[in-house]
Amino acid sequence: MSVGCPAVSVTGLYKSFVDGNEQVRVLENLTFTLPLHHSTALVGPSGSGKSTLINILTGIEPPDAGAIRLFGETVSHSSQKRWSQLRGQCIATVFQDANLMPTLSLANNIRLRAQLAGTSDANAEHWLNLLGLDNLGHRFPDQVSGGQRQRAALAMAFAMRPALLLADEPTGSLDVATARQVADALFHHQQDTGCPMLLSTHDPVLAARCDTTLSLMATGLGDP
Amino acid sequence: MTLSGALLSHYRRHPLQFLALLLILLIATALWSGVWSLSQQARASFSASDAALAQRHVVLRNDGVPVGVSDFVRLRRLGVCVTPQLVVERPAPQGRLIGIDAFSLACFAAQSAPNARAHPGVFVDIGEAEAIAGTRWPTRLTLFIDQTTSGLPSDYRIEQQPGTVATEQLADSFLLNLDALCALVLLISALLVRSVFVLGMTQREASLVLLQRHGVTAQRIRWHLVVEITLFALLGGGLGLVLGRVLARGFAAGFDQVLSGLFSVSLYTQTASVLSWLAPLLMLVIVMIWAVADRLFEHQPSRHKPAQMTAAWLTLATGVGVVLLLPSLTGQFAGIALVLAGYGWLTTLNLPLLLERLARRSASPLLSWSWSEVSAMVRQLALPLAALQFAAATVIAVHALVATFESTFYQWLDQRLQGDVYVQAPPALERQTARQRLASLASVSALHSVLRGRAQSRFGSLDVMAIESASPLLRRWEFLSTAVPGDTGVADASAGTPTDGDTVWRAVAAGQVLINEQLSRRHGLAAGNAITLTLGTTTMTATIAAVYADYGRPAGEVVIDQALWPENWPYQSSSFAVRLRSGGVESFQQQLAQAWQTSDVKVRDNEAIRTLAVRIFDQTFALTRAISTMTLLLAGVALLLMALTLFASRSWYYQLLQVWGLSATQVRGWLIRHGLLLTGAIALIALPLGVFLTWVLVARINPLAFGWSLPMATYPGFWLMIVALSLAVGLVLAVLLAPQIALSPASIRRSTEPHHPSGTGREKKAG
Ligand SMILES: Nc1ncnc2c1ncn2[C@@H]1O[C@H](COP(=O)(O)OP(=O)(O)OP(=O)(O)O)[C@@H](O)[C@H]1O
Ligand SMILES: [Mg+2]
Asked: Is residue B148 a part of any domain in this protein?
């Protein structure tokens, strides 16, 4: 990982799925960079491949072709072991839902994420307070609201001190007001730490708050 | 889409679950109905043989000579209503054959006459039986007499057929044991059915709520669910019943040997009637409805923990109380059922609490997650785990009982069978003469003569065995308790020493008597008490010197010195136990035939007797063992199937760990640990229950059923095996679940996008 390189640099990325007899081309010759200290909105109609791209950037879905560099390191052909390390220590991922272990308290969820990242000084209370979840650390995920749950998920992501934050519709299942709180937390963190962020969303207001926008086109129709 | 279509679409999307449910129902029903059909057959066999032996009073000669054909002819001529029965003892595969005479049966009261046609192959005409036996197999002739008949000459007497009453008790307790096993299998089946249903309800909660929101009444949904579960019962249960019949037929051969070996009853194979099919099916439906009733009629189960905990403790305490206080077999079995239920309930309530405490206590968040995850699994799989626990405890108890009985019985047999061979005294020769000639043989190193008869006492008629108390062949007898001064009562049979025995035998030589454990327990007689016996016309009162173990039959028995045998009292049998100095049994037999001047010397060697006794008990317990092992298997398979379908709601959390940087191998490692912990803990918790069950079997049920108790023994080696077996189940569990924890884009979409079309069944998180 070298300083000064862009957080993510993708060139000529291809991804398609076979659905029955049809080949669905989702990502075609995609090239982009995510600069350091920037937030990027990932937008596009449903089915345009936003989640697929995030899965590729976390090593969960292999690309068909193309080069991916994370902080200068070429990871397109990295082993699963390397990807596990990257996911554990560098890349924080926030999903739309189910980001927490239901059997652990919010505080313990944060501690667990920090433990896996190897961050020794995990002060769960600090991160909870930062996200306005004061005194909720002992609660279990099913004992707090959806917005609080999502903020706890952010606290977990922040606690691991990520080098890159990938969020796939983090506010997708929240009402407007709650979504705004969660978004505020994301952008505050981004401004405070300068952690580069890729934020997939359907919400134009949220997309507008990002520094740049990466648009995926609906390629949809595949070859017979 | 219709309502049923909507409800059933669940199984279209989860075909594995559909098969799992069907398979659990099928195996459970098969096992249960198999055992049930066997016990029904046994019951029918016992009642059939009861009818055949209704004329249980037999004629004996006062001079002690066994009755023969000439006696039958003589009595018939005198107009006495007697009928002969010739028992032919054929070796194993063919088994016992009973010859009867239909003609002479005519004089018996109608309902007490045996119906030979009802038992083809078991009862045959006496002439046929004689022809079959020829000289190849030993035969025994018995003359049954109608008690109401008169005119019996004075040199004959009537006696109740020895052992009849006792056999009835033994048969009853045997049936009770079968019934208890049957009930256990039914209990486990009910638990599994319930878990299957609860699973279906939980998984479809979302769609049920949706249906209600669309205006379908709860009432209608419930009715559909009732129809659905009934269909399941009919399909899985019906197939299971057929399989159960096949299973019962497979067992029937061994079972038949048990019956004929222990009770002289042949398995009465019923032709399947409509009722015999309907009854178990009806039972099945009732059990299914019972198993799911509360979930069916009340949408949410009561989650009031403290009340449940109290109820569970109460159930357990009541069960223990019943076992300790109720001196009846039915009471014991009811107590056991309560203990099982209470213990299983407590386990499934407390194990998660314990695991959650461990989760709170552990400093490492990952470890904390691990404990709490297992706790969630235990909650989810509570019912199949409880079933596994019951099965494991039962297997442990049955094994301990069988193993203890085997070792105790063999040890006892060794003490008793001190001679190398046994010979029946020749009827033609005077007893003392026979004894002297036998003793003078070169190949005889020691001998002991035994007389048998039946004495009267205020406890009814008792078997009497008269021995020579000075014989070296009695030195190894061990006593359960003694009252001879200078002797310490020995409670444990294995702790007895020859010195103890010597003083006891001196007391017997001086006129005291010994009684067996059955007699002692049944009538509260202890060493040191006095007992009054009437031997023919002689009445005597003697002190009981000691109580000995007697695992042969349940009948009461008294041992006296031969000096006490009245001169004029005929014996029923006279035999000798002989220790051989040299040469084989063959040459001994030849020498003896010469000395006794008879060609008819029947020598039974020790080994043969031992083999016979061992075989009978092996057969009895092979069945019990097989059934309990299959129950364990059923519980294991059910747990696997349930886990396989239920794990879908937990698999995401193992994937989340991979999103957070653990490798697939590491997460699989956790899954394996969880599987092992789950089943290992259940097996460990089942151990005390197994020990308790063992204790109830040997110390409570055995004395009630058979008249004797067994020393309480535990078999840690076998426990290890059960724990290892459980761990193996846990390992298989982990291996089967492993594909579900593979991190994939599809599972991410399913789990993290709440409105994804296939995103069903994710559990509303447990606290
Ligand atoms: N395993 C697969 N097999 C076939 N098609 C797939 C598979 N995975 C994804 N797709 C298809 O790829 C396309 C992109 O899916 P993706 O989930 O990335 O879209 P998205 O932009 O995240 O949509 P949304 O905004 O609805 O979340 C879709 O058309 C989807 O059907
Ligand atoms: Mg998406």
From this structure: yes
